[in-house]
Amino acid sequence: MNCDRRSPRHVFAGAAFGALALGSPALAADMALKAPAYKAVYDWTGFYLGGHVGYGDGGLGPGTNPLPEQGAFFPHSVTGVTGGFQAGYNRQFSNRVVLGIEADATFPSPVDLPRRAPAPFNATIDYTGTLRGRVGYAFGMWMPYLTGGFAWGHSHININDGGREILSSPGQYHTGWTVGAGAEFAVGGNWSAKLEYDYIDLARRMYDLSDFALPGVNVDPRIHLIEFGLNYRFGDTPWAPSVLTNGQSAFARSNDWNVHAQTTFLPQAYPSFRSPYAGANSLPGPGQIQETWTTTAFLGLRLWEGGEFYFNPELAQGFGLNGTLGLAGFPNGEAQKAGAAFPKIRPQRYYLKQTFGLGGEQEDVADGPNQLPGKRDIDRVTLIVGRFAVGDFFDGNSYAKDPRADFMNWAMWSSAAYDFPADLPGYTRGAVVELNRKDWAVRAGLFQVPDAPNSDILVFRTGGAVVEFEGRYSIFDQPGKVRLGVFGNRGNTGNYREALAIEGMDPALDINAVMTGIRRDNPKYGFYANAEQQIAKDIGLFARASWNDGQNEILSFTDVDRSVSGGLSVKGSYWGRPSDTIGVGGAINGLSSAHRDFLAAGGLGLLIGDGQLNYRNERILEAYYAYSIDTHFTLTADYQLIANPAYNADRGPVSIFSGRLHGEF
After folding, report:
1. Nearest 5 degrees, angle CA 77-CA 79-CA 80?
2. H-type helices in 68-120, by residue range?
3. C-alpha to C-alpha distance for 5 and 168, rounded to whole angstroms
4. pLDDT surpasses 60 at 567
5. For strand 562-571 and strand 121-137, is the pairing parallel, antiparallel, or unpaired?
């Protein structure tokens, strides 16, 4: 990962997506979709904005060695899965002709690493944008149309060092044209859905690679895109007055589907700190500023009684501090190990949820992200199958769980010694089953694990499992919960003591090469305890403790073998701002003796490795204030003090200052 390629101008794409896709109070007020029955009286006139996902293919010209981008459900291609946003205006005339103008931006997927063939360089397309006219004909609720106009984009070339490292990444802008066709359908309220094909032809750009002893190459993008999108139309309902009753749509609202979204921008910085030496994975001693940006859509659909399907495409851009390296308790929960200078789209979640009610008392289910409204039996069995984050269903906590809303440090919002199975962005595929009763629940999961430490490739050759018990209680009428979990993973990892023994017999060996060479299927097991307790209205305490055996490499999460954390959360009702929150907490992380000896010998972990080690526990203090701007946006100021960063008493402490702008719709 080459973090130096990121620059502030690249943020525009993620920022525009967040602003356009999630936009205004008027949009947010109706963002939770409710699908009415269909009626063939509709006016397409008005401004709209929305988002889209799809798939693309094409070429960048001969001899360009295009990077294979992840296709998820489809083959890899020069774009892979695509996603982005659009905004436009339509005018419908009395003869049913609809004229419009639309601008959009579309972003590709990350690289499909197993499909990447060795090459001295690789070309890729970073994004495309278009400004197009649209000509359609309204058939009531649906409108076929033709479209075409101006297109632009950005490409870059990775100069490789003969392995997987990137020496340089020069980039250029392209302009061109586009043409396409599609059909849009009114789905209810102010919402419409569209299916569209676009062909994008961008001008050829010459890359002079002579500084790298390589011949020049022409990048000549020709892109085919198929997109499914949702648009929100501003203003009054586009349905004709004849279908309104008492000023409201006559179409009965339904709880069978919804759409929500979030956007989070999180910059972080730290000043210089004491650093007498540094290793490959050390946090640099000089100060640094980085930022991350994510925008996520949460789409839900009720399939049948008890059956629900959820899909969450997400755009992510930016890097954690030092490329998400240098601290075991990493300070940014939004930072992915697969950072990117331009936004990248991933279908982060897609799963089927089936609930089997057992009868008896029911409870209300509020409308929310990945949650369709309605009622359900309190006594129930729930089965979930698909792609998700393990933390979606395990190790929850009301006061410290969501780095987009509360504590940011990895050791605060998670049981840090639980090496939960995940790819680089933090997701896996598998199944979860839960039995819920009024005062307790038990849940279990089986998941894919990466094929090696810090890998983006999930496999079922081995796997991970977790079982969690949740108990609910009250103390002096104040509610509380306790969660106890045990976990076990089996993955392709090396053993610390074995690597040390081999290197000890021949000190000339590189201990990291030794570790790579001895990897095989090895276990990791442990437990976690997680408690939350309200002590007064709008005041709560939380605590976590976790442990793993610490004998073999960490596979997925971070370099922690034992951890304790806890803190206090207070809502602003005590000072007249009930939607604000202040939080203060701390964590202490530790390593097994085998793990610390490996790092002291020059070993590298998932996130840390200073080349040598004067071991002490890593200690973290975090405090934040979340200021509610309105019902949709929250601005947070956060401070973290980390002593003995990466368990090294010779370095630090480091102070990390963060801001966070978060929107929910």
Report:
1. 60
2. none
3. 8
4. yes
5. unpaired
**For residue 657, how many other CB atoms are within 10 A of its CB?**
15
63 token code pair? 């001899």
Contacts for 23 with CB less than 8 Å, ≥ 6 apart: 49
Give the type of residue at 340: A
Cα Dmax for the chain:
87
For the stretch 167-212, pLDDT in tens is 888 999 999 999 999 999 998 778 899 999 999 999 999 999 998 9
Residue type, 493: T
Helix (H, G, I), strand (E, B) or coil at 219: strand
The answer on pLDDT for 574 being more than 90 is: yes
Spatial contact of 133 and 147, defined as CB atoms under 8 Å apart: yes
Contacting residues for 260 by C-beta, under 8 A, at least 6 apart: 31, 32, 297, 298, 368, 369, 664, 665
Q: How far apart are CA 193 and CA 617, in angstroms?
A: 53
Is-contact 215 119, C-beta < 8 A?
no
Report pLDDT digits (tens) over 515-524.
999 999 999 9
Q: In 10 A of CB 507, how many CB atoms?
A: 8
- Quick one: pLDDT at residue 235? 79
Residues sharing a CB contact under 8 Å with residue 95, sequence separation 6 or more, in sequence order: none
On the question of a cis peptide bond just before residue 373, with omega within 30 degrees of 0, the verdict is no
Q: What is the pLDDT of residue 113?
A: 78
What angle is formed at CA 275 by the lines to CA 271 and CA 279, rounded to 5 degrees?
Answer: 115
Query: Which SS3 state, helix, strand or coil, does residue 303 take?
Result: strand
Q: How far is residue 137 from each of residues 55, 91, 99, 100, 104, measured CA to CA in Å?
A: 26, 11, 9, 11, 21
Number of residues written out for the chain: 665
CA angle (159, 165, 169) in 5-degree steps: 35
Cα 389–chain centre separation: 10
The H or E element that residue 499 is part of is helix 496-505
Neighbours of 289 (CB within 10 A): 11
d(CA 344, CA 293): 11
The residues near 528 (Cβ < 8 Å, ≥ 6 apart) are 395, 415, 417, 418, 483, 484, 485, 487, 544, 545, 546, 547
Q: C-alpha dihedral over 167, 173, 177, 178, to 10 degrees?
A: 50
Q: Which of 254, 131, 116 is nearest to 198 (CA)?
A: 131
Residue type, 68: P
Radius of gyration of the chain, Cα coordinates, nearest whole angstrom: 26
Which tens digit of pLDDT belongs to each residue from 612-642? 999 999 999 999 999 999 999 999 999 999 9
Question: How would DSSP label each residue in 174-210?
Answer: EEEEEEEEEEEEEEETTEEEEEEEEEEEE--EEE--G
Residues β-bridged to residue 147 = 134, 180
CA distance 479 to 322: 41
Torsion angles phi and psi, residue 647, rounded to 5: 70, 20
pLDDT, tens digit, 9 for 90 and up, residues 436-446: 999 999 999 99
CA distance 115 to 624: 43
> Model pTM?
0.89
pLDDT digits (tens, 9 = 90+) for 211-236: 898 999 999 999 999 999 999 898 77
How many angstroms separate the CA atoms of 622 and 634, rounded?
Answer: 18
Tokens 């979340």, residue located: 626
